[in-house]
Amino acid sequence: MDSAVKATEKPRLPFSSLLNISFGFFGIQIGFALQNANMSRIFQSLGTSLDNLPALWVAAPLTGLLVQPVIGHMSDRTWLGRLGRRRPYFLAGALLAAFALFVMPESPVLLFAAVMLWVLDASLNISMEPFRAFVGDMLRKDQHAAGYAVQTAFIGAGAVVGSIFPWALEQMGVSNDAPAGALPDTVRFAFWFGGAALFLAVLWTVLTTKEYSPEEMARFEAEAADEQAHTVRVLAARGFGSSAAWIGLGALIVFAVGAWGLEKEVYLLGGLLILYGLASLVAILLARGGKSSILCHIVGDFGGMPELMKRLALAQFFSWSALFIMWINTTPVVAQYFYHAPEAGTPGYQDGANWVDVLFATYNGVAAVAALTLLPLLASRIGRVRTHIAALLCGAAGYASFFLIQDPKLLIASEVGIGIAWASILAMPYAILASSLPQRKLGIYMGLFNIFVVVPQLLVATVMGSIMKAFFPGDPIWTMAFAAGVMALAALAMLRVPEPAKSA
């Protein structure tokens, strides 16, 4: 960029534009909600045991880990004329996800359902990651907080619809009974509705928004034009010590599986660490040879994250560990302890699973309201960091309350605390980050930040099964104690995050 040319400010967009920018997330979250609330139910209905649930859920975090940084990097460099930069990814992901939602409830065997979960989660991630960067692309910095709040409200609203739909269908007379090895019509119809809603919501955003061209974005930015080359030069100067450390840690985990008799799924965790160590080694060698590649940029940007992003990453790590524990285990916990029906296929189990849909709709509904009302009010008075700490502690209390409540209806109160935490997790870290990330690399940094969303989920999916089998076999209620503990650790991690300056 010519040094004589000063960056110009983006125009301030009306509230209606903020709605259009994030409306597609409403549909995406319907898909995620159906997945989160019903996949354990589907897997158990197709014959898997409680002990095997974490292994089957591993597809979700693994696809996010692999897909989001790559999609972020690619979308930073895409321009397809009238279709734009981020919108091609919205549309492609929505088509694939809608297909997976239509096919999923017809899964004839467990393996097919697991493959469809993989396809669904990869597709949702292809659409979701560019939406995070889309807010930063389209809005000026003093609108970022409002943009992410609106996005969170749509996430909550979509999750309410997706979570409660099977229950609502039952109230309308649709059968909630199912023969062994099959799903009730309430779940099948809900997945079909979700596929259509997801595609139409994303299509709305595609048709009602117009992205800034590369030339317009260049006028809005003050970053140096050779920023990408700088990343490769910094990577070339890096030593091989960190690569060796990642490989060594992965090898140690692989050894521990056999030595301590851990679940075989933990091999995946060790293998991923070894793979990243090897990838970083190759990236450094390529950079030293003067070659630029997607691998160089992803590895280089991961190591060069801003300090604020690194501190927020630790809080994200603990926050999402708690959330994933909840998504995997709430259905078996509620069915076993509140409906006394641990076995899938029994009427009590189906009733418990449908009540989980209501509980998940509750915390998402609370999140939608809190994102636009409670959290902005608190943030204006005590700051965004303290607001996030308070919200995370509400979530920890919600998980802990599962041990004190006996009437399943009273679990609604637990979900209020969890919903406040969920709203803050979806909005506050991104509002804190929004103005500190370079605009030219917004997609890749949002994708890399997502690593600290999916890695804890991967840890839960691989390690939690070993812990529960060793110490609490057949007693899933203790997963809620782990969720409460790690959510409290997330609040402690936020104490290291400085309060950002107030935007204009």
Layout of secondary structure:
Blueprint (H helix, E strand, L loop, with lengths): L14 H31 L7 H5 L1 H18 L10 H17 L6 H29 L5 H28 L13 H24 L5 H7 L6 H10 L4 H20 L5 H23 L5 H10 L3 H31 L9 H26 L1 H9 L1 H17 L10 H23 L8 H8 L1 H21 L6 H16 L11
Helix pairs in contact: 1-5, 1-6, 1-7, 1-13, 1-14, 3-5, 3-18, 3-19, 4-5, 4-7, 5-18, 6-7, 6-14, 6-17, 9-11, 9-12, 10-11, 11-12, 11-19, 13-14, 13-17, 13-19, 13-20, 14-17, 15-16, 16-17, 16-20
Give an overview of the whole structure:
The chain is an all-alpha fold and 504 residues long. The protein has two domains: 15-223 and 307-436 and 438-496, MFS general substrate transporter like domains (Growth Hormone, Chain: A, Up-down Bundle); 228-295. It contains 20 helices and no strands. α11 packs antiparallel against α19 and α16 packs antiparallel against α17 (411-433). It is globular, with a radius of gyration of 22 Å. It starts with 14 loop residues before the first helix and ends in an 11-residue tail after the last helix. Mean pLDDT is 83; it is low at 1-5.
